[in-house]
Amino acid sequence: MMSLAFIALEVHRRGGQERAAAEVLSRLASDVELSVVANVCELPGVAHRFVRVGLPTGPTVVRTMRFASAATRAARDVGATLTQSIGAAAREADVITAQFCQAAFTKRFGGLRGGSALRRVWQRAAQLQFVASEAHAYRSGRLRRVIAVSTGVGRELHEEYGVPMERITVIPNGVDHAVFRPLDGTSKRLMRMQLALPSDQCIALFIGGDWERKGLRDAITAVAGIPDTMLVIVGAGDQEPMRQHAARVGATAQVRFAGMSTEPEKWYQAADFLLFPSRYEAFSLVTLEAAACGLPIIAHRINGTEDLIRDGENGYLSELGPEALRVHVQRFRDDQIRRRQMSEQAVVISKRYAWDRIAAEHLAVLHEVQA
Length: 371
Description:
By secondary structure, the chain is of the alpha/beta class. The protein has helices spanning 17-28, 60-78, 102-109, 117-138, 151-161, 185-194, 216-223, 239-248, 264-270, 285-292, 305-308, 322-334, 336-350, 355-370; strands at residues 2-7, 10-11, 32-38, 40-41, 49-52, 82-86, 95-98, 145-148, 168-170, 202-207, 229-234, 255-259, 273-276, 297-300, 315-318. α5 (151-161) links the parallel β8 (145-148) and β9 (168-170). The longest helix is centred in the middle third of the chain and has 22 residues, at 117-138.
C-alpha cells in the first residue's frame, strides 16, 4: 500500500482549504497509509497517524515559516512513500495542492486585505515573504506534480513561479451533495421561518470572511435601495465599518449580519441567490456549495467561477463594480421563472464536483507520481 505524509497547518471540516483537505483525506485513507503532519488534525473515524507540529508564537508570517521547516523535518521522519503539502505548508514536497497563489494575489492587490494604513504597510512586507516561501516550494527540485484547484490557479503558478504546465493537474474542490442540496418550496419557507428571514423578499446571500478581498462593500452597495431585497451576511468580520458603509449607501434596513454558522447549508437553502463579488479566489467552496443547494450565482470572472459558472445559464459573471452587480441583482429579483431555471442548472452542473469523484482523481495523481 502507498504511504502518504500530508502536510498542512490544519485539517478539519471548518474553513476552506482545511475542509477540502479533510474531505479528500477521509476518502483516501482506505487506499493509502496516511500520516497527517499538522498543528491541528480532526479526522474522526478515519484511519491515520497524526504527527503534531506546534505553531510558535509571533506574527503569522514568522509562525508559518517556522512551521514549514519543522513540518518538512517531521515528514522526513515519517518515511512515507510520498509527501504532499498544501501550498508552502512544507518547504518541499513531492506533490503540492495549490489552493492559492500568493504571487498573483500580490501582483493584483499588493497583498492587502484591508485595515489601517499601518496594517497595510505590514501586510505588504509580510506578503513578500509569503511569495518567497511559495517560490521556494514550487521551484524545489523534489516537486513532481502540482494539483491546482482551478484552471486559473494552474495558469498563475506557471506564469509566476515557472511551474511547467505538464506538471500541473487541475482537480477542483468538491461538495458533499448529501449535505448541500436544494429544498422544495414548502421546506424553503419553513427554513426561512427557522432562520427568522422574511418570506416575501428576494434574499441575496454572502458567505465568507476576509470581507474586503471578497467584495462585501460592493455587495452591500449593489442591493442598496432595491425594493423587497435583503442581503444576508454569514461569516466573521469587522462589522462596524460594514454597518457604517450600509448606512452611507442607504442599505441599513436591507442588511443582516448573521455571524458564523456551523450549518451553512441552512442559509444556502433559505436564500434565492449567492452574491459573491470576490476579487481573488483559488476555487471557493462557497460557490460550489451554493450551486449544489440550487443557488444561481453572481460573481466576477475569477479563478473557479470561470470554471463553474456558465454565464446566463447557472449564474452571471459580472463586470467589476457595484453598478454591474446591481443589474444582475435586479434581474434575479424581477424574474422568478428565470431564477428557477438557473437554480435547476446550478444543481446539475454541481454534480461534476462530488467529493468522491474529486478524491478518486487525487488518488490517480498520487499513483502516477509514485509510478
